[in-house]
DNA sequence: CCTACCGATCGGTAGG
DNA sequence: CCTACCGATCGGTAGG
């Protein structure tokens, strides 16, 4: 009859996002391999098998999370005006990076911790984007060395140094901490500009 | 009779070390939860169950590795003479930290990535040692701020900055890289001293 | 150090 | 979205 129940289930659009966010939180807290699909399902009030109406596999969850994080970092850095003087540009990059950490802490953490558990072809793609990200920083350091706003004897190492100090911040940055994002970014950038030998009397550097 | 085979097996002393080192390598490469006991066993030419003649559990492996790494970091920092002037002391701490990374890369990586998978009481103990480690750095930064060898407006943040730049180095430090440990540590310390506003004309700072 | 084995749990599928 | 279920694999034990 016309009132027969259809078994072709059409998932809501938002449900997938809910699953991805929950997976991100659990992967952040317990790690990818230590998180079971049933655990994710429980947290979104589903049976384990029902997840597969919304996603294809556990790996797809990780891929989505890591991919979005990589894209967010890269997009934020690309927002920074590349024609700014190197010190201002670095301030912008620091602010961008810390902003992503603050706003996307679970995804960023999963990105840093679990990307190596993806298959080799996806890893290669991620490494490419990481290199593109690093190139933005390296270009800034090198431009500053060239125009004299920075004093660096080893630009590749200085770039690694800058990125190291930023990358680790996901370990301690508290989105609800004592400092506003702007204040934190300003101080962090000031420390980095000091490391790069920028003139402390120039602009907002230390007096 | 007197020649009966005894089934009480007495493990060799070195075998345990071999298992621990292999586990460290595999945990580093694939992560703790993604590494199976049978995989470890295969790499030391044993049956999976035979591992338990040498160790008590998989968790004990992780505990040993993480514990040794934490102890190595702390011991290295404590080797640095606390009566040195703050800039020299920081140079020593940088050199100590990078030395541990270089010499104990697998264990250090597992420490940073997997310590959160240990039970809460062990986590607390590790956090205590991490705090002790950080306190050595904070003391150095504060001493330098007090005696004028550093210029820092926010000592807690500056300490986090120093530790962040060091902690991330396990991601890229190549024990067989282009720079010797001494050269690398010298340059890295020089960057950090610049961040802390140390007088560049003082000692081995930038001219 | 091995053989044999166990209960639990895993990611995922069939079918409706 | 659920019920029922599968093969594979997990960490670990018994017993010698």
Summarize this structure as a short list of keywords or feature phrases.
disordered C terminus; elongated; DNA-binding; homodimer; mainly alpha; 207 residues
Could you characterize what this model shows?
Two copies of one chain form a homodimer. In chain A, 63% of the residues lie in helices and 0% in strands. Chain A has helices at residues 13-30, 37-43, 58-79, 86-103, 105-114, 120-147, 155-167, 181-195. In chain A, helix 3 crosses helix 5 (105-114). The longest helix of chain A is centred in the middle third of the chain and has 28 residues, at 120-147. Chain A is elongated and about 65 Å long. Chain A starts with 12 loop residues before the first helix and ends in a 12-residue tail after the last helix. Mean pLDDT of chain A is 92; it is low at 1-5 and 203-207. Chain A binds a DNA duplex (16 and 16 nucleotides) through loops.
As a percent range, the share of helical residues of chain A equals 55-70%
Radius of gyration of chain A, in angstroms, nearest whole number:
21 Å
**Secondary structure tally, helices of chain A:** 8
Quaternary structure of the protein: homodimer
Q: Which outline of chain A best applies?
A: elongated
Which two chains share the most extensive interface? Answer: A-B, 37 and 37 residues
Q: What integer is the average pLDDT of chain A? A: 92
Calculate the terminal CA-CA distance of chain A, rounded to whole Å: 83 Å
Q: What's the SSE pattern of chain A?
A: HHHHHHHH
Beta-strand portion of chain A reads under 5%
The low-confidence runs of chain A, each spanning 5 or more residues with pLDDT under 50, are 1-5, 203-207
Number of strands of chain A: 0
Q: Classify the secondary structure makeup of chain A into a structural class.
A: mainly alpha
Largest sheet of chain A: none
């Amino acid at each position: 009859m016309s009132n027969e129940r259809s078994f072709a289930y059409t998932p809501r659009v938002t449900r997938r996002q809910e699953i991805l966010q929950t997976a991100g939180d659990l992967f952040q807290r317990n790690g990818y391999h230590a998180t079971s699909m049933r655990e994710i399902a429980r947290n979104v009030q589903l049976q384990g098998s029902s997840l597969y109406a919304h996603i294809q596999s556990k790996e797809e969850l990780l891929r989505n999370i890591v991919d979005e994080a990589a894209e967010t970092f890269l997009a934020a850095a690309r927002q920074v005006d590349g024609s700014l003087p190197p010190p201002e540009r670095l301030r912008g990059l620091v602010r961008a990076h810390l902003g992503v950490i603050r706003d996307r802490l679970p995804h960023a953490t999963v990105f840093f911790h679990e990307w190596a558990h993806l298959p080799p072809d996806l890893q290669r793609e991620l490494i490419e984007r990481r290199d593109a990200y690093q190139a933005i920083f390296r270009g800034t350091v090198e431009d500053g060395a060239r125009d004299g706003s920075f004093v660096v004897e080893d630009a590749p190492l200085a770039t690694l140094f800058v990125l190291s100090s930023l990358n680790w911040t996901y370990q301690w940055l508290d989105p609800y901490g004592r400092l506003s994002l702007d204040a934190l970014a300003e101080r962090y950038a000031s420390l980095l500009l000091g490391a790069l030998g920028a003139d402390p009397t120039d602009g907002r550097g230390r007096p």
